[in-house]
Design brief:
The strands form two sheets. Strands 2, 4, 5, 6, 9, 10 and 11 form a seven-stranded mixed sheet that branches. The chain has a four-stranded antiparallel sheet with strand order 1-3-8-7, with no helix packed on it. The protein is built from no helices and eleven strands. The protein is globular and about 40 Å long. The chain starts with a strand and ends with a strand. The model has no long low-confidence stretch (mean pLDDT 94). The protein is 0% helix and 50% strand.
């Protein structure tokens, strides 16, 4: 059973940076697609970025393109989200997600973490 644990959230001022991590365990063999999502209070969950086909491809939501970078360290089974030039509208709970369908990007993932809070003032 795949388990995902996010960390790295916090409170920073606008213009600052944060790096989120997502430690994965319980993987079986094969490549997994992984993604980051976020949900602000009173809003629906929003897809942020994905990395798929074993890390060969990445995609970003227009709202974060050029500011956020998704990456993964396969040896550590860890997913990252480097967030630069943060804005107040980036404030949300951030979740990582994984799925054994290696082609998945914006769809529905099977495995989810508990989330880490990011607050930008």
């Amino acid at each position: 059973h795949v388990q995902l644990v996010e960390s790295g959230g916090g409170s920073v001022q606008a213009g600052g940076s944060l790096r989120l991590s997502c430690a994965a365990s319980g993987y079986t063999s094969g490549s997994y697609a992984m993604g980051w999502f976020r949900q602000a209070p009173g809003k629906e969950r929003e897809w942020v970025a994905c990395i798929y086909f074993g890390g060969a491809d990445t995609e970003y939501a227009d709202s974060v393109k050029g500011r956020f970078t998704i990456s993964q360290d396969n040896t550590k089974h860890t997913l990252y989200l480097q967030m630069n030039s943060l804005k107040p509208e980036d404030t949300a709970m951030y979740y990582c997600a994984a799925d054994k369908r290696s082609y998945l990007c914006r769809g529905t993932y099977n495995y989810w973490g508990q989330g880490t809070q990011v607050t930008i003032s």
